[in-house]
Batch of 2 targets.
Target 1
Amino acid sequence: MCFAFVLDPLVQIMVAISFPIASVIMIGGAFFFMLGNSEKAWKTIFNAGLGYVIIQMSP
């Protein structure tokens, strides 16, 4: 059995939950904007977006 077939259910779960998790993290970044910490806000939003794209490209 191929190693990719063994990990397929895990990858599918990660792809399915990546959007809600990235959305929550980006909303948290928006709160940093409201608190006046724009550098941390951009870093948080960028990292969440980058993580989302990488997970979506994994399959």
Note: The two ends are 18 Å apart (CA to CA).
Target 2
Amino acid sequence: MVTSGNSERIEILSAEGVGRTLSRLASQVLECVGEVEQLLLLGIPTRGVQLSAVLARFLQEQSGQAIAQGTLDPTFHRDDLERVAMRPVQATELPVSVEGRDVLLVDDVIFTGRTVRAALEAIQAWGRPRRVMLLVMVDRGHRELPIQPDFCGRSVPTRRTETIELRLLDIDGEEGVFLRSVQAEK
């Protein structure tokens, strides 16, 4: 456990654990998807985009084929913008049409389910996929909508005052999954 200021950071998954988890998730996705050529990964900003890129590498290593990968920003489809911090909108980038494809939405953490609901609505503006699946690194509970991931790296029950952080080597200089708990001032 690391303490800084008024928060604690607890390691849930080490860098090695993240690698093992992504390898397992990639295997599960490949078992589920019939034709890899029809698979399209769409990362949900912000961390889902980077996670999607890393997952695409694992999928390519295991399947021997390049995996189509893009970005889907559901910001304008959210129903809770007044309650969540607004971040800069990221462009939706689709390397291929979603029409008739197996689309795998990728996000770092699922919490209330509202981001995924917005992503499902956003994807409909781009066509009709054959199937939409959801992969998350961490499910922290507290769902407000009946949305569950098809592929989940780890379930970590949390308090509402806690957060989960996915750190990736490519952007953060470290890798792991951490639980951050903000403590009250004394």
Note: The chain has a mean pLDDT of 91.
